[in-house]
């Protein structure tokens, strides 16, 4: 017989898992080489508890990535509500996405190519749907032209996680963001291929 969803033990285990994922996110953001034991200590749990949830380092890294992406996808309505304009929300959301992608890339050898590809494939549709939501809001207030493809915009914005580190990289990302936004704007003369014939 299945345990009831409101089982306090299950709720505690879920809360514990979420806490470990947040601590691991912060630890990996500081250093991609942080050990699982160091993360367990920082999370205030025994190594056994951490290994019960995440048997290997790769399991934990991929779980952090999926958790971050899910949280980012779910954040779109809140980001839109908090930002002065939909375009400000678009900027803020894509900068956060870039931080997540850079974190994943920074873990380098800790991830196997096949496992990373599975995680990227699994999160692609929800991320594209989130981009579509941001574009809809921007289209409704007239800050981007209608008919933009969310997958195209996601691919275009990939420059954000390719710029260099530090202040120089952040400044370049800001300049490129404004170039991209100008290209998406309602007055832009940038058009895709003519598919009318």
How many structural domains are formed by the residues? 2
Coarse structural class:
mainly alpha
Task: Report strand %.
Answer: under 5%
- Find the CATH superfamily of the largest domain: Tetracycline Repressor, domain 2
Overall description:
- There is one protein chain.
- With 197 residues, the chain is mostly helical.
- The chain folds into two domains: 11-55, Homeodomain-like (Arc Repressor Mutant, subunit A, Orthogonal Bundle); 57-184, Tetracycline Repressor, domain 2 (Orthogonal Bundle).
- It has nine helices and no strands.
- It has helices spanning 8-30, 36-43, 47-53, 57-74, 76-82, 86-106, 113-140, 150-156, 166-184.
- Helix 5 (76-82) crosses helix 6 (86-106).
- The longest helix has 28 residues, at 113-140.
- It is elongated and about 60 Å long.
- 20% of the residues are buried.
- The model has no long low-confidence stretch (mean pLDDT 84).
Report a brief summary of the structure.
The protein has helices spanning 8-30, 36-43, 47-53, 57-74, 76-82, 86-106, 113-140, 150-156, 166-184.
Mind sketching the topology for me?
Blueprint: H1 8-30, H2 36-43, H3 47-53, H4 57-74, H5 76-82, H6 86-106, H7 113-140, H8 150-156, H9 166-184
């Amino acid at each position: 017989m299945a345990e009831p969803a409101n089982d306090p033990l299950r709720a505690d285990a879920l809360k514990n898992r979420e806490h470990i994922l947040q601590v691991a996110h912060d630890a990996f953001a500081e250093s991609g080489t942080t050990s699982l034991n160091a993360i367990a200590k920082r999370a205030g749990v025994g190594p056994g508890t951490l290994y019960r949830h995440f048997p290997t380092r790769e399991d934990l890294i991929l779980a952090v990535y999926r958790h971050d992406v899910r949280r980012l996808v779910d954040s779109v309505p809140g980001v839109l509500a908090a930002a002065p304009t939909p375009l400000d929300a678009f900027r803020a959301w894509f900068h956060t996405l870039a931080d997540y992608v850079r974190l994943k890339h920074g873990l380098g050898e800790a991830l196997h190519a096949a496992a990373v590809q599975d995680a990227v494939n699994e999160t692609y549709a929800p991320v594209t749907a989130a981009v579509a939501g941001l574009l809809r809001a921007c289209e409704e207030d007239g800050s981007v032209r209608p008919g933009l493809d969310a997958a195209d915009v996601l691919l275009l914005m990939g420059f954000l996680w390719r710029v260099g580190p530090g202040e120089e990289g952040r400044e370049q990302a800001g300049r490129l963001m404004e170039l991209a936004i100008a290209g998406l704007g309602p007055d832009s003369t940038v058009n895709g291929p003519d598919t009318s014939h």
